[in-house]
Design a protein that fits this description.
Length: about 450
């Protein structure tokens, strides 16, 4: 429930890192009414307003001709900007929900809020007059297609201080959008620190037929920084469908060759790979969990909420990394999170995690989500190899996480034993190296 009386002194809403940004430099005066006392600024209000907005959608209010011909005026980036608070300072129910076993903030719960926020901002971008009190300019369903990236700054979240979340649309194509989100929290002396930055890819679909795209409002730049952001994201969308970047390079083939030459060179038996006591086979790092999808996990469209899937994947990856590193770990980044198929209520949901690459104290973890439906086993089996029978599954999601070992600076080197693991190894190597270039000084 939305808390009525929440009071917290919030200092300036500004960045603490020297990164170029296209976000507005909004401030909240300490002398003025605290931001978190406004019921409309609470994260629960953000979620409920999105649900109400979608509930008022009338899919039959436009003909097919009108859907294709209606003029959609381009928006500015600031048009969709929104800011909300997670009231951890005084709301005891929220504190319990967000408290982790390590007495910090459950990042999985934060991911759920980020997903809700991305959907909310995308609807604001496509609403009349920039408010969800007004109807949609066209009947549409907006869902998360993927998460391009979430980078976590090396700052510990405090479980009893308010968390600020803001975001805006930073790119709009024909039916897809990029939403950029940030998270902030006060430190012990009142300075507001940026905790993370996230980039979500959203798509607009017909409420009556999810296979049909629905146009979204375009985006116009008002500054050179905005124009650069839009152009870079446009190039990212262009590369998304290309398979060229997924193929191993000559340098990567050489990495695998050198690794196996080293492993085989240790053995007195021809073509037998031998690990040292500082290495582990990738398939030995597998950790899995299975869930039944209950109605409580559903989103406003009756499907399983994407934020729930991200939370479960993160918590599994974190557990796997903690066991692998034999100590406490911190998440540094999430990359290339894909929502390939919707998950339905009643599905049996399987999460399988592997450590795919290591470098010193850094660990890359991949989580794959699959579903099996006890009522459609023959149908699912046809999609897989028929010999799988009742074990037939369909892939729905892929998640990639970069973790840092806090207590053990030199973790075991992971080694792929099979070809399928070799591709995961090279993918993990790319992701981890890119993360280190971005966020590690």
């Amino acid at each position: 429930m939305i808390a009525r009386h929440i009071a917290n002194r919030i200092s300036r809403f500004s960045q603490t890192r020297s990164l170029r940004t296209i976000f507005p430099k909004t401030t909240v005066s300490i002398a003025s009414r605290p931001f978190s006392t406004d019921p409309d600024s609470l994260v629960d209000k953000m979620v409920s307003s999105t649900f109400c907005h979608v509930a008022k959608c009338q899919p039959d209010s436009f003909s097919e001709e009108e859907k294709n011909s209606k003029k959609l005026e381009p928006r500015t980036i600031s048009h969709s900007y929104r800011k909300f608070v997670i009231p951890l300072s005084t709301d005891t129910n929220k504190q319990k929900q967000y408290l982790s076993a390590a007495r910090s903030v459950r990042l999985g719960k934060i991911l759920e809020d980020l997903d809700h926020m991305a959907v909310h901002v995308a609807y604001v971008h496509n609403s009349d007059n920039g408010t969800l009190d007004e109807p949609m300019t066209l009947p549409r369903t907006i869902v998360t297609a993927s998460v391009k990236r979430i980078d976590f700054h090396d700052i510990e979240m405090h479980p009893s201080r308010d968390v600020i979340i803001d975001g805006q649309v930073t790119y709009a194509g024909t039916s897809s959008m990029q939403v950029c989100l940030r998270l902030f929290q006060n430190d012990e002396i009142g300075n507001l620190n940026q905790l993370l930055k996230a980039e979500f890819i959203m798509v607009s679909r017909d409420p009556l037929d999810a296979s049909k795209k629905v146009r979204v409002h375009g985006l116009t730049a008002k500054t050179p920084d905005e124009a650069e952001t839009i152009n870079k994201t446009k190039e990212h969308f262009r590369r998304m469908g290309s398979s060229t970047n997924k193929q191993p390079t000559n340098e990567e083939f050489q990495v695998i060759h050198n690794m196996y030459s080293e492993l085989v060179g240790r053995s007195m038996v021809h073509d037998v790979a031998v690990l040292s006591n500082t290495e582990m086979w990738m398939h030995k790092t597998n950790l899995s969990v299975t869930e039944i999808c209950f109605p409580e996990y559903q989103n406003m469209y009756g499907k399983i909420f994407g934020g729930f899937l991200m939370r479960k994947a993160l918590e599994l990856a974190h557990t796997n990394a903690k066991l692998y590193c034999k100590g406490r770990v911190a998440i540094r980044s999430m990359d290339q999170i894909e929502f390939q198929k919707p998950v339905e209520i009643g599905h049996v949901l399987h999460f399988d995690s592997f450590v795919t690459y290591t470098d010193g104290k850094y660990v890359q973890v991949k989580v794959a989500a699959t579903i099996s439906d006890q009522h459609k086993l023959p149908e699912l089996a046809k999609l897989n190899h028929p010999t799988l029978g009742e074990e037939a599954r369909v892939n729905t999601n892929v998640f990639n996480f970069t973790m840092e070992s806090v207590e053990n600076p030199n973790v075991l080197r992971v080694v792929p034993k099979h070809y399928v693991h070799t591709t995961s190894y090279l993918e993990g190597r790319r992701l981890l190296n890119n993360t280190l270039k971005r966020i590690v000084k």
